[in-house]
Design a protein that fits this description.
6-stranded antiparallel sheet; globular; alpha+beta
Length: 408
């Protein structure tokens, strides 16, 4: 090559490299009818998908998954964006910067079709593998149990960290390693995959089974506890089902035809000042008249679970624990109010030891902890009429608090 052409060739090569980096390594933003759309790049790579702590049978076996690069919504789809596209908003907990919820799968497909027509971009839902890779922090993952931290309080509105028991504005907790918000808690997120069992085989860009069954949902919600909010946890949702704790997040392929319609996000629309909320009202259960060193005899009987919701006070749910004097227990809930049918959520034996309620779950029980002995710290208050159980998952550190009132 002519030496005089070398600087030009170098400059051309550098420009091409810069263009390539812009197309493949930039976070993006745009507005649709004045509603922000913000996308984070997830660079392609490989990861081990599933439960690394081996606590969730449905998330095993671990298997290697390789993904191409893609883009994911920086936040869940907001009610502002949903209404800008669909012209209505049926969410239970209203707020322009709260995640849209109470929508079924077909409504999401209609939303995506309209949004794609309006923008010329091929938006879609995340696959289950893409969701987990992004939630884990992609190539920058630090191996957290939740998306962005091992401390649930830092990153998620959940049953453990959300005293008001409602959804919240997006991006009011800390982001994960990629700068993505709320992949733990707030609302579950629909995935495009149908449900299917894991295998140990390596996979490239998996899209789930072809058989039409229930769809996967990920991430937990504002009312679900730590166990259900792990990045590996898989939930099933019927396509026609709606829930005030179920929303979704945008995704798109990292291709030029999509990227060129955005502007590079040197700063975001949804800044902390924009999405800021007033401090949540405290909603703590006041424990008084505590029984010191409760005996097994004081626990025998039927207990009903409840929660505390600020000014609304105690809210009683259709979930019960029966502790029998023969040292067997039954956890059960009301499956149908009309027929008064109950379904069991665990059976086995129990005892009190070192101020803990020890439950050994029957091996064949319909319970996530089947066959195991669970030690739950026991606080008996209100002169023995309120039972507070605290379960700590020794592997993940997840804390679950349950409150019961004695049924007299």
């Amino acid at each position: 090559m002519n030496n005089n052409l070398l600087p030009i060739a170098f400059l051309l090569s550098s420009c091409l490299m810069m263009m390539s980096c812009q197309l493949n390594a930039e976070n993006l933003k745009m507005k649709v009818n004045n509603a922000p759309v913000e996308m984070i790049e997830v660079r392609g790579g490989s990861f081990m998908m599933g439960d690394h702590n081996k606590q969730n049978k449905d998330a095993l076996p671990l298997h290697k998954v390789t993904l191409d690069s893609y883009y994911v919504g920086r936040t869940e789809v907001t009610q502002q964006l949903w209404e800008a596209v669909m012209g209505y908003n049926n969410s239970t907990y209203k707020g322009e910067y709260r995640p849209v919820e109470s929508i079924d799968y077909e409504e999401i497909m209609s939303f995506l079709k309209k949004l794609n027509t309006m923008t010329g971009i091929k938006f879609r839902l995340l696959t289950e593998a893409e969701w987990e890779f992004a939630a884990r922090g992609g190539l920058f993952s630090k191996g957290y149990v939740y998306s962005g931290s091992d401390n649930l309080e830092e990153v998620g509105w959940t049953g453990n960290t959300n005293p008001t028991k409602v959804t919240h504005n997006v991006a009011n907790k800390a982001p994960n390693e990629l700068g993505i918000y709320d992949m733990t808690g707030n609302v579950w997120e629909w995935c495009s995959d149908y449900n299917g069992a894991y295998t140990s085989e390596e996979q490239n860009n998996p899209t789930g089974p072809a058989k039409e069954t229930w769809h996967e949902a990920r991430g937990g919600s504002y009312r679900h506890y730590a166990y259900w909010c792990q990045v590996c946890y898989r939930d099933l949702r019927y396509p026609a089902g709606k829930d005030d704790g179920l929303g979704f997040r945008l995704a798109m392929d990292a291709i030029k035809s999509n990227i060129k319609r955005f502007e590079v996000a040197t700063e975001w629309y949804l800044t902390p000042e924009v999405v800021a909320e007033k401090p949540a009202q405290s909603a703590e259960i006041q424990e008084k008249d505590i029984v010191q060193n409760p005996t097994e005899e004081q626990l025998v009987g039927l207990w009903q679970r409840f929660s505390f919701e600020g000014e609304r006070g105690r809210q009683y749910g259709p979930f019960f624990k029966l502790l029998s004097d023969d040292h067997t227990f039954k956890n059960f809930g009301l499956a149908s109010a009309k027929s008064l049918k109950f379904q069991f959520g665990g059976t086995g034996s129990w005892e009190v030891k070192d101020n803990c309620l020890m439950e050994t779950v029957d091996a064949g029980s319909n319970n996530a902890f089947h066959g195991k002995t669970n030690a739950m710290e026991l606080i008996l208050s209100d002169k023995g009429d309120v039972m507070h159980l605290i379960y700590i998952n020794t592997v993940t550190g997840a804390r679950m608090d349950e409150y019961y009132v004695r049924v007299k």
